[in-house]
Amino acid sequence: MISLKSVRKTFRVAKRQAGFSRAVKALFSREYELVRALDDISFDIRDGEMVGYIGPNGAGKSTTIKIMCGVLTPDSGSCSIDGRTPWKERIAHVREIGVVFGQRSQLWWDVPVADSFQLIRDIYKVDGASYRKTLDELTERLDLNEILKTPARSLSLGQRMRCEIAASLLHSPRTLFLDEPTIGLDAVSKIAVRQFIKKLNAERGTTVILTTHDMQDIEALTERILLIGKGKILLDGSLAELKKRSPEALDMTSEEMVAALYREFKI
Amino acid sequence: MKPYFGIFRLRFINALQYRAAALAGIATQFAWGFMEIFAFAAFYRTDPGAFPMAFSETVSYIWLQQAFLALFMMWFWEGDIASSITSGSIAYEMVRPADLYVRWFCQASANRLARAALRCAPILLVAFLLPAPYRMSLPPSIGQFALFILSAALSLGVVVSFSMLIYISLFFTLSPSGVRLITAVLSDFLAGATIPLPFFPEPVRAVVELLPFASMQNMPLRVYTGNIAGADALRGLLLQIFWLMMLLLAGRLTMKKALNKVVVQGG
């Protein structure tokens, strides 16, 4: 059970015009701008739900995910995940969650993937028998057999992403956060990743929260969509419900519909 | 302890792979060692009595320093920690159920130990086989050797906990080059890396020997050569323990502060 109430987060960003004289001026006085990344975000997610979190670049998707993972501390508001506040009980909280940050890597660059997995096993203290079982299952489903002995630096993006997802599931988390897990993947890898996540949710009841810009991810995976823009939750409902909002939307592809929504909300 | 041992192990494995870097390092250390010893030899030739350390002590000091360079030099740097802060991959380290300070401490010590393990044997072997005045001598007694091991371990702790402060400063400055350059030059000079501390003029030396830097390579190297022995050695070890505690405490406190205001760079 995930519950966010009135979560706010602002970042202070240094701003200045380009150019030499401005750069010199900035040596003496800096201008900062407060960017309101999250402005009163509230929602609830039940156990076993699969939720798509969408919105344009810079809307606050990743910030929300990072708050729910205990990486960032919000300015105000509350967040409770299985009864814990992520940033206050970070270590107990992160033991129960898995995270994939699609734009970063958790694998050690120069050693075989299997060594990185071993470290993750040590960190989460997964016992031998259940580790073997989980690893075998992940190896089979994500087709990792050939690549476990390869150093991460030699993997293709699709291979690496499959390893990243496996790495985030080695400790069998109850909740899985996926921050753009299909970014840059080819069609085959995308489909493989989607099928895997779908199965994981159906069989293990893992709660999945997914951010993506790929509407096919959303169509394939999630029953519920949260639309965020300029730091606020704008819509909360199923894809079908979103399509029913206006008569034109019925003939649109999901992609066009989302673009229309972004225009409608001017985000 | 298992998670931290896992990190130690993987960092060790990772550092062991860079054979070419180790060979280049060994070559550099030989060249540097000979250069320093020849320079000292020229000075000693004018008046051996004018120096605070016997020539054989100075020779052992230099060879030992070159063999274990990776353990004690402040300019030696764990790039992975620095880049995880400045690039934002720290997000992944924060979703692990492990204490980040302890984790980085293990990682940095493993890196130093692995690199020292790769490099020390050939240097020590040659240093023990060289012709007489340039040969490295054995420690004066077994007891003294035991003190050396103890002091070397404490010295590694002091060096790593001091570098932790520099890594933590990256949370606030983002660019490692400035802080790193200043601290490396200053602390290596005050630790006796450029010239051993007994060569410092008397009033300066009295102060410098109390600073945390004197608890770095200065102690183990001089204990090995017998330059510091008996009650002086015990007092030195106590001072090392004191500085280690202080630096650990300072690191813990600043880390706590830094993590509360963490910002993940790059989205």
Q: Name the helicity range of chain A.
A: 25-40%
* Unreliable segments of 5+ consecutive residues of chain B: none
Distance between the termini of chain B: 33 Å
Output the structural class of chain B: mainly alpha
Per CATH, the class of chain A reads: Alpha Beta
SSE pattern of chain B, N- to C-terminal: HHHHHHHHHHHH
SSE order of chain A in H/E notation?
Answer: EHEEHEHEHHHEHEHEEHH
Count the E strands of chain B: 0
Rg value of chain B: 19 Å
Describe what is shown at a glance.
Chain A has ten helices and nine strands. By secondary structure, chain A is an alpha/beta fold.
Please tell me about this protein's structure.
The complex is a heterodimer of chains A (about 270) and B (about 270). Helices cover about 40% and strands about 25% of the residues of chain A. Chain A is of the alpha/beta class. Chain A has one domain (about 1-5, about 45-265): 3-Layer(aba) Sandwich (Rossmann fold), CATH 3.40.50.300. In chain A, the strands form two sheets. A six-stranded mixed β-sheet of chain A has the order 5-6-7-3-8-9, sandwiched between helices. The mean pLDDT of chain A is about 90. Chain B is mainly α and about 270 residues long. Chain B has twelve helices and no strands. Chain B has helices at about 1-15, 20-45, 55-65, 70, 80-85, 90-95, 100-130, 140-175, 175-190, 200-210, 220-225, 230-260. Chain B is globular. The two termini of chain B are about 35 Å apart. The interface of A and B includes residues 69, 116 and 125 of A.
From the structure above, extract its key features:
heterodimer, A: 267 residues, alpha/beta, Rossmann fold, six-stranded mixed β-sheet, three-stranded antiparallel β-sheet, 10 helices, B: 267 residues, 74% helix, globular
